UniProtKB/TrEMBL annotation, chain A:
Domain Ribosomal protein/NADH dehydrogenase: 35-108
Annotated Gene3D superfamilies: Glutaredoxin
Listed InterPro entries: Ribosomal_mL43, Ribosomal_mL43/mS25/NADH_DH, Thioredoxin-like_sf
GO MF annotations in UniProt: structural constituent of ribosome
Protein name as it appears in the record: Large ribosomal subunit protein mL43
GO biological process, one term: mitochondrial translation
Primary localization class, coarse: mitochondrion
Matches recorded under Pfam families: L51_S25_CI-B8
UniProt similarity note: Belongs to the mitochondrion-specific ribosomal protein mL43 family.
Keyword terms, alphabetized: Mitochondrion, Ribonucleoprotein, Ribosomal protein
One GO cellular component term: mitochondrial large ribosomal subunit
TrEMBL record, chain B:
Pfam families: Ribosomal_L13
Gene Ontology molecular functions: mRNA binding; structural constituent of ribosome
Name recorded for this polypeptide: Large ribosomal subunit protein uL13m
Family: Belongs to the universal ribosomal protein uL13 family.
UniProt-listed InterPro entries: Ribosomal_uL13, Ribosomal_uL13_bac-type, Ribosomal_uL13_sf
Organism: Plakobranchus ocellatus
Chief subcellular location: mitochondrion
Ribosomal protein keyword on record: yes
Keyword Ribonucleoprotein: yes
TrEMBL record, chain C:
Molecular function GO terms recorded: double-stranded RNA binding; ribonuclease III activity
Lineage of the organism: Eukaryota, Metazoa, Spiralia, Lophotrochozoa, Mollusca
Species for this entry: Plakobranchus ocellatus
Record domain RNase III: where: 75-210
Family per similarity comment: Belongs to the ribonuclease III family. Mitochondrion-specific ribosomal protein mL44 subfamily.
UniProt keyword Protease present: no
Name assigned to this protein: Large ribosomal subunit protein mL44
Length: 172, 198, 358
């Protein structure tokens, strides 16, 4: 589109991830919460009951717990391409926090913008892209234009004259 | 990368076509010519892509119009000044400029396109068979004609005329060549004086 | 009372909604709550913004300087993330740079600790890096020679050089997560350090798990970087027609004959020519071009691509799951273009050697 105000980008695969082996792009995740404030209650609940499941399933992700007094709970995810993303976890139930942690685990770390195309390929064509001389008869290459052979209408149909001549010749 | 550059050049190349307008209807020819001018004949066509080709049209002097279009088909013009409106029949326009009828036909066919002027610049019209050598060298293909060019009596050899089977038995005193000596009226005698050619 | 009121007002700062007391009868203070916006606030914010800009950006800090950092956990996670089981000691050693060891020695000397009495138990990663570099180079070449058996040795070397540049290996190691784990004096880490660390990781894996595992690592992280590039563009051929002629004649076929196939718009800027190369009247390759000479050169390049079987329609690299049972011939030797050129042109006129260079 002509408008460049809204950021948009092509799809990217960081370091051809998955072509060789798949590497989880989440490097470390930090759970920030307050030890006493009621706003962090769900977060504390999550840490007690659900955090170890997450860590056992993802040994390649370093988990940090950062207690911060009088501050709302949040998670900060750091990805292998150097980007950081933080999300507020205030008023989110432990199940929802699980889901957001899983969401961060599944991301590639690339900034979320509008997709220009929802696909990307390095080899768009294996048979080759059309060009004007792909299906041309090679006789036209040595023709001297204008040539009545190429100009004349091909399918003319039978005219009355042709019919008369044919009948006459048949009779003879 | 260098190969991609030449491949892109090849895919989006502007080819040159030639068209013989002898005995062709200008409006039907315009349909075919504008198809090539816009690039609609290419699978890579897009309106913003500027994928149109050049078309060289010759023998525009010898176009054929159906019915009484030579007299009744009018070209209008307004100079945008007061009293600047004028109209002319096709035959008058054709006398003035033998390429104008086909040019206007193509121009009208491309109406609505904002790159119409650019496309019209890629249309090269010549009244006769005389085409400049440098343009003729560019041409790489020919567009098929729209109508069959009828074979005139002059194009038949005397042998063909003589060997053609006789379809009707004429009475002995029938003068076959009488049509050549037919009493021909002066042109435009059927119309009022104001409309006659000077 | 007035003083405490005044100090309260002062401490309230720039907050706009302060209820002013209507005890004073001079008209300086407003009576009642504020009904319009705080006109001072914008100026205040603008000045603070300008001060922040003048102070300059945050100085770049290592990740380890932040509070949420645990080196042991990070090292463990590094191995787990890549799916490799490293020995912890070798992996730690792989991240220790020489500059770090020197720095530690200096610190100990400054503190007055005798090096001989309390030896520094730190080995740097140069040995691992050398081993890893050698293994990586040899494996890349072996793999490429087997995947492209008809490619000339110069092309294989060019692809290998492209993959083992410092920038490429630094890029890979950054996206694996090496940057935060590196121990070195310099900051920010240069691409040389990053690439050395990557090679050291390969070397560490080689010493822990053996050759096969290390080669799989190289295949999974270094070789996919070839996917986005055109392998033919990595090797710059100076005279493709000369090479083509030598190759064809030495393999018993006729000399290459370029022929014009198509042309359009010869007198215009948008001229297009298609040139095809024939040998003994057999078609080899064709290519378009803006002028006849360009088209001929590109056609010769296409012909060489066809001989090397690395055209655009070639099969993709064998990576990932498909490469698990890959059997490579480690002794394979590919044809060298230089040998061909020398053989063909060297035997005739010695002066011809100078005109055909790769």
């Amino acid at each position: 589109m002509a408008n460049n105000a809204i950021p948009r980008d092509f799809l990217k695969n960081v370091l051809q991830n998955g072509m060789g082996r798949y590497v989880c792009q989440l490097q470390r995740i930090t759970f920030r919460f307050c030890k006493s404030h009621p706003g962090s209650r769900h977060m504390r609940d999550f840490i007690e009951n659900h955090l170890l499941d997450f860590t056992q399933k993802n040994p390649g992700v370093v988990v940090y717990l950062q207690p911060r007094r009088h501050r709302p709970p949040s998670i900060v995810a750091e990805f292998l391409n150097g980007r950081r993303e933080s999300m507020e976890m205030m008023r989110k139930e432990p199940q929802e926090i699980c889901k957001w942690a899983e969401y961060m685990r599944g991301r590639s770390g690339v900034q979320i913008v509008n997709m220009i195309h929802n696909n990307h390929t390095e080899t768009p064509s294996t048979q080759g892209i059309w060009h004007p001389f792909m299906f041309r008869d090679s006789e036209t290459a040595v023709a001297k234009f204008p040539d009545p052979k190429y100009s004349a209408v091909r399918e003319t149909g039978k005219t009355a004259t042709d019919y008369v001549l044919e009948e006459f010749n048949n009779k003879e | 990368m260098a190969h991609n550059r030449v491949m892109q050049w090849a895919v989006l190349a502007r080819t040159w076509w030639i068209f013989d307008a002898n005995q062709q209807c200008p409006f039907r020819s315009a349909y075919r010519i504008t198809t090539y001018l816009q690039g609609l004949h290419k699978p890579v066509y897009h309106r913003h892509g500027d994928v149109g080709d050049h078309v060289v049209v010759f023998n525009t002097k010898h176009i054929a119009m159906r019915g009484d279009f030579w007299r009744t088909y009018k070209h209008f013009h307004h100079t945008r000044y007061a009293g600047g409106f004028s109209r002319a029949s096709a035959y008058r326009v054709h006398e003035e400029d033998p390429t104008r009828i086909l040019e206007r036909a193509c121009h009208n066919r491309l109406s609505g396109l904002d790159n119409r002027r650019t496309l019209m610049k890629r249309l090269h019209l010549f009244p006769d068979k005389d085409i400049p050598e440098n343009i003729l060298e560019n041409v790489s293909g020919q567009i098929q004609q729209v109508q069959v060019v009828p074979k005139k009596l002059e194009d038949y050899t005397q042998e063909d005329i003589d060997s053609f089977p006789q379809l009707f038995k004429m009475p002995e005193d029938y003068d076959i060549d009488s049509y050549k000596r037919e009493n021909r009226l002066e042109p435009d005698q059927h119309t009022s004086k104001a409309w006659r050619l000077k | 009372m007035a003083a405490s009121m005044a100090s309260k007002l002062f401490r309230a700062g720039a907050r706009s909604t302060i209820r002013k007391v209507s005890l004073f009868s001079n008209g300086l203070l407003q009576k009642g709550p504020r009904r319009n916006y705080d006109r001072h606030r914008m100026r205040y914010l603008k000045e603070m913004y300008q001060k922040r800009l003048d102070a300059g950006p945050e100085k770049p800090r290592r990740r380890s300087e932040w509070i949420n950092w645990n080196y042991d956990a990070e090292i463990y996670a590094f191995g787990q993330r890549l799916g490799e089981e490293f020995e912890e000691s070798t992996l730690r050693q792989a991240f220790i740079n020489r500059s770090y060891v020197e720095g530690e020695k200096k610190k100990r000397a400054e503190l007055g600790i005798d090096i001989d009495a309390v030896p520094l138990q730190l080995d740097d990663n140069t040995e691992f890096a050398n081993e890893g570099s050698v293994l990586m180079s040899s494996y890349l070449k072996v793999y490429l020679r087997n995947i492209y058996p008809y490619m000339f040795e110069e092309g294989i070397s060019a692809a290998h050089d492209y993959l083992t540049t410092d920038e490429m290996l630094a890029h890979i190691s950054k996206h694996i997560g090496c940057e935060d784990l590196i121990l070195s004096e310099e900051f920010p880490t240069s691409s040389a350090t990053l690439s050395t660390t990557f090679k050291a990781v390969v070397g560490a894996l080689f010493s822990d798990k053996g050759r096969e595992r290390a080669e799989q690592f190289v295949r999974d992280f270094v070789l996919p970087q070839l996917i986005e590039t055109d392998i033919n563009e990595l090797w710059q051929i100076v005279n493709p027609m000369g090479l083509l002629k030598a190759v064809l004649v030495l393999s018993g076929k006729g000399e290459p004959e370029p022929r014009l196939l198509w042309k359009s718009g010869a007198n215009t800027i948008m001229s297009l020519y298609w040139v095809g190369i024939y040998s003994d009247k057999d078609f080899i390759a064709k290519s378009p071009g803006e002028t006849i000479l360009i088209a001929e050169e590109m056609a010769a390049r296409e012909a060489i691509k066809k001989i090397m079987k690395t055209e655009d329609s070639r099969a993709p690299l064998v990576l990932g799951a498909a490469a698990e049972n890959l059997k490579l011939d480690y002794e394979r030797v590919n044809v060298s273009a230089e040998d061909i050129i020398r053989k063909y042109y060297g035997s005739e006129d010695p002066q011809k050697n100078t005109s055909t260079s790769l």
